[in-house]
Design a protein that fits this description.
Layout (H helix, E strand, L loop, with lengths): L3 E6 L3 H14 L4 E6 L2 H7 L7 E5 L6 H8 L11 H16 L2 E6 L6 E3 L4 H17 L7 E5 L7 H12 L4 E6 L11 H7 L4 H8 L1 E3 L2 E5 L4 H4 L4 H11 L7 E6 L15 E5 L4 H16 L9 E4 L3 H6 L2 H8 L2
Parallel strand pairs: 1-2, 1-3, 3-4, 4-5, 6-10, 6-11, 7-9, 7-10, 11-12
Antiparallel strand pairs: 8-9
Helix pairs in contact: 1-5, 6-13
Amino acid sequence: MRTYRVGICSPDPGYASNLMLGLNRVSAGKVEAMVFSSPEMILTCMPIREPDLIIMDGNVPEDPQEAVAEYHTDSATQYSSTQDSAIREYASYWEKKLGTQVLVLTETPSTFGVCKYRSVREICQVLLERLQKANASVPQRFGCIAVFSPLGRCGKTALARALARAESGRGGLYIGMEEYTDRTVHSEVLYQIHRRAPEIYEAVVREQTSEDGITCLRMSDTYSDFRDVQKPDLEWFHSQLLQPERYRTLIYDVGSASLSSPVVLDCFDRIYMPVLSDPGSLGKLEHFRNALRDSGQGELLRKIRSVELPKESVEAFDEQRLLDCVGA
């Protein structure tokens, strides 16, 4: 059974605390709710695994200009004159800003929120339906998976190789996009990508290797070559490889220095981000997430799934336990 992490943000601490206790009690372990003073504080205090959903007080006034002033948004979004539209725009604004789902608590019944005066069981049912619907809309197998982390020595490569081995019998391909490799690589694949060469699949097949039973493609031995690769390049590359009788899943092992821009990450269907829990690592993760939001890439956070891998499993390369950590 999956437990969803839910952050609650309300100007009424008494109501928020009672809602937290009620949700944790009636959800039978399906919800782990916590109360915070602001949306930003939720993300700061949940650095290892970000919340699946944030409940925010959305007492939106009828006047759209008053709504903007009350919520102190710095967005240029123009709210419509109806309360429901204002609630929808408010939720959309925070979802884009924070990179996670937002459920708005309202004073009155609303199409896009949930009335805060409904019973705790009813509120719990609404948020579970929303979470389960969002989770069900994500396919269990992804065409393009990136294993990426701004941290070092966190188990990134071990997880990428475990995922690749799990997919090896179903047309999976491990693609090394690390800063450096432990071997010299002579490949024309990057050149073919830039040329949009129609024979790119044949080039990949020619240059792929088998490493401990994993089908691998290493396109360069240094990160500087990868930094010329832009999002449209990889999108085209994926369209050529992810076809019947070719590859079903591409698993990238991505080094931070190999990206020309975080925008490149947007061409992946799912991003697993191994993390560490020491203070220094938590500070780096917070800066990374803030940098995405500040650069207008906060939506990427909805694709990123943070996972803390057991150190002993990484060192022993316990593939099954690594896969269990991501539910693969």
